[in-house]
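Researcher: Please predict.
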Amino acid sequence: MNVSEARVEGTKKHDRILAVDDSPDNLFLIQAILEDEGYDIDLAEDGFVALEKIEKQPPDLILLDVMMPKLDGYDVTRRVRSNENLAYIPILLITAHEGSSVVRGLDVGADDFIRKPVEMDELQARVRSLLRLKHSLDERDRMAREREDFVSRLTHDLRTPLVAADRMFALMQSGTFGEVSEGMQEAIATMVRSNQNLLDMVNLLLEVYRYEAGRKELTFSRFDFYETIQQIVEELTPLAEEKGLDLQFNCSQDFKRPLVGDRLELRRVFANIIGNAIKFTDTGTVSVGLERDGNHSVLEIKDTGIGISLPDQKTLFERFRQGRHKRSGSGLGLHLSHRIVAAHHGRIDVRSEIGQGSVFRICLPTNPGS
């Protein structure tokens, strides 16, 4: 017995299989074949009883007869797959009719198909195959949960001393611990900026993993798109002026098209993209505009900055993909922005040439639920 077979042998005794068939004789046969392999077998003689059992105690695998009165195997499969509260359960459809549609069964969500009379070796092999798939997906989900828990604990443990250090720096700057020389003020100011950068990165990392683990809950509401962008431009204008840049907002005030979405999350995206345009532009202009595109609203940010090479454009929104420029950050900001926009059923497009600047377009449906 090899390692993989030993693993199956060691785990299958804990697998619970629900067999559903309107024929007691067929159920007896399936039970005899699979109990001999060490599986725990539960039986149901119609689709409604099966759904009750699945809801009460989800099995590891469902063996489901296609042709049953009242509720056939296709309908049971469809209802199981539409239940968002259920984790993935492999479904093996069984039929004695040549006319039963394999395509229909797979389309409604079944994983495999076997015909009667069932051969013992074939049934056992298909069950083993589907349970290996189940175990693999369960292991993947378990590792994802552990990763999310680890990141959550890690970021909490990192955030606590960073917040404490920030408060301590503020007390030092205010002279609480005694007079601070001009040189020390400059040194403390540098430490404050570095500490804040670390805190921002920790918070950003946590947000990325929340999205990737599917644990980020968005709060959708209607908000004023124009007003939100105007506020961001006003907040970032001093930063542009420090660099001698002309930050323009090119949109008439009659642009009264509200958006439906999570305002705080989308605001994070807008501020990040506009802020990046300022960061990577040394001379010239950063132009921000709003426009309509059918049922979508578009935010366009143009700059006269350093531009982005074609290879970098292809990986721009991947996690931890840093650009080649020395000012490039952790590679998380654009990745998170892409995640947030995708969660709103929108998209981010970029056009750029080295030395010619960049154009980012954020296209969002006016109502993502429509």
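Model: The radius of gyration is 29 Å.
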